[in-house]
Amino acid sequence: MRPLRHARRARSERRATVPALLGVAMAAAAACTDVPSSPDEPFSIGFERLPFPAVVAGDLLRDSTGEIAPLGAVAFNTDQEPIEGFPVEYVFIGDAAGLEPGDRVRGVVENDTVRITAFANGIPSLPQTLWVVPRPDSLVNGAQPADITYGLPASAADTSGRIADTLLATTGQTAPAPVRAWIVRYRIVVDGDTLDPNDQTLAFIVDDAGRPSPLDTTDAAGAVARKVRVNAFAGEALAAIESLVVSVTVEGVTTPPRGAPRQVTIPVRPRPPAP
Known about the structure:
The chain is 11% helix and 35% strand.
């Protein structure tokens, strides 16, 4: 891999260049001077997220569908309109990944990170952190959650146990290695129909705090988990189902790891009325 010159130079001068650029931009903003008036001159830069939070060492950065995805920072003018074709420069802090032609990123060093800042005419974005990880090839399934019971008044019992999994890399490893910063998606299927993740009429995916969240990102141990909450007020619609299925899929790959996607069937039944 041969990084573009500006990315290599930025790494070699990172201790002085990046703080200096950030300082200049902050000072200019504080002084409220030299506000650009041309619609073709940048006033701000949009770089809120990366195509994916992790890249496989030796591979190019991909999006959630597994397709190669370049970095996508965009310069905006004072009217917050994108400036088509305005050149954006990327500065990397760290050597775990490098920039290739077409603003594509290649992972280099496993289990390390880089911080990437985009610049348009000297205006910096907030930095984004990218993990470089081994290639995930196995999703180890956790225990089967117990039945969901529901009733009124609604309570924590209307929520399933944790649907837990661990994402690992096994190929080329002396021992299975956890893969961190990787996205796993959860979908609820009822009678063959996949529920809209934003529809809480019947059932929805939640995190450990009970907040609606159909995605989880693996932690340092490669672990992810979500729960299912049913809407006890759904009445006859809920009473008509005996179980629901949770589909667990690994994002960012074109070939699913072993153990994925997996289907978790959870029986659903009403609670006996309180005596």
